[in-house]
Amino acid sequence: METRKFPRIGKDISLLGFGLMRLPLLASGSARDIDYDAACRMVDRAIEHGVNYFDTAYIYHEQESENFAGHALSRHPRDSYNLATKMPIWLLKNPGDLERIFSEQLKKCRVDHFDFYLLHNIGGESYDAALKHGAYGFLREKKDAGYIGNLGFSIHDAPDALAKALTWGEWDFAQIQLNYIDWDAIESKRLYGILAEYDIPAVVMEPVRGGALANLPPAAADILKDFNPDASQASWAIRYAASLPGVLTVLSGMTWPEQLEDNLGTMSDFRPLSDEERTVLERAGAAFLASGTIPCTGCRYCVDCPSGVEIPRIFAMYNQYMTQKSAGFPLAEIVLRNTYRTLNDEERPRNCVSCGVCVQRCPQGIDIPKFMSEISNTLAD
User: Fold this and answer.
1) CATH code, residues 3-289
2) Phi and psi of 378, rounded to 5°?
3) Are 130 and 94 in contact (CB under 8 A)?
């Protein structure tokens, strides 16, 4: 397994990180119902092949991911893995919440310290809340007391917000969204550049854009396949992020063993992208953007919708439709309508009242009510 080491971190970190936010589920389909047996086998396989960075958060899998992390990782020697979790800033309401949540996380994860700890998504209102509650000072004290090895933050905001957050104090790392689409689309290039200026290593999230870059529209997929028939679409995206020298680890939220094996193969025999390959990816990226899909990563930060609309599921249906349509599939609309019928009445886009709650939560800044209206009109819902 390829590793990276930065002076601020002081230890070798696997270039592939295991994100514990899209774990396999039991048949119920509930996000809380993690298939512990299947997921543990994947964790064991990852550790066996040198993966030593595992990323969870208080809210993942409806607050069940940290419990799983504690169960799965405690079966291995503590020095064989690095555990990262995050403080949910938007849940801070009372003076004692920081201590309560942090203590709860230690207990759920079955550890006496976190190797990496982040303020979760310090953008927009969360930025103000973090300042109001003194979140940085609290976590700095925890680090000084030995409960945190490396202190950082994740951010889904503009470069100016990142630069402002870096003035709070001393940070060991930062987590940003970065992939070959968002390099320009959400200014990941500038985010990465700012971290480089401060000599702060980047942990990359959404390298495959919630799976979208592993399921490309045919026009984009053909460009990659023509150049290298043996390379998976996901491996192109993973290599893009991992080729940047300022990247500490690339997180992949893996659901299936096949995804893990593909990523292990990519990072165990890692080759940075060549200039020719970068040109190929630029062409594929342009074809992807031309397909008209919605830039949803399926993170589910937008749920629960006050009106009951099943936002991520609707976007997934619509993106499949747009991909099929761009490929000239004649039954694309029929497939969309048949899939749409699986939604309960209260989950459908016509129930959107444009309250804007989802927009405030969306890390991608998607105008969700606008798309809900368009999808409803498309289906004459």
Assistant:
1) 3.20.20.100
2) -60, -40
3) no
Q: Is the predicted pLDDT of residue 327 greater than 70, yes or no?
A: no
* Alpha-carbon distance values, 240 to 37, 211, 339 (Å): 32, 15, 33
The three state secondary structure string of 53-78 is EEECCCCHHHHCHHHHHHHHHCCCCH
Cα–Cα distance for residue pair 171/194, rounded to 1 Å: 13
- Residue 41: what residue type? R
pTM of the predicted structure, to 2 decimals: 0.83
Provide, rounded to the nearest whole percent, the portion of the chain with pLDDT above 90: 56
* More confident position, 236 or 316: 236
* Burial class of residue 101 in the structure, from the number of CB atoms within 10 Å of its CB (0-12 exposed, 13-18 middle, 19+ buried): middle
Two tokens, residue 254: 């893996």
- 212 vs 74, 110, 134, 288, CA distance in Å? 32, 34, 37, 9
Q: What per-residue confidence (pLDDT) applies to 309?
A: 85
Answer yes or no: are the C-beta atoms of 200 and 172 closer than 8 Å: yes
Whole-Å CA distances, 21 to 32, 35, 206, 253? 11, 13, 11, 6
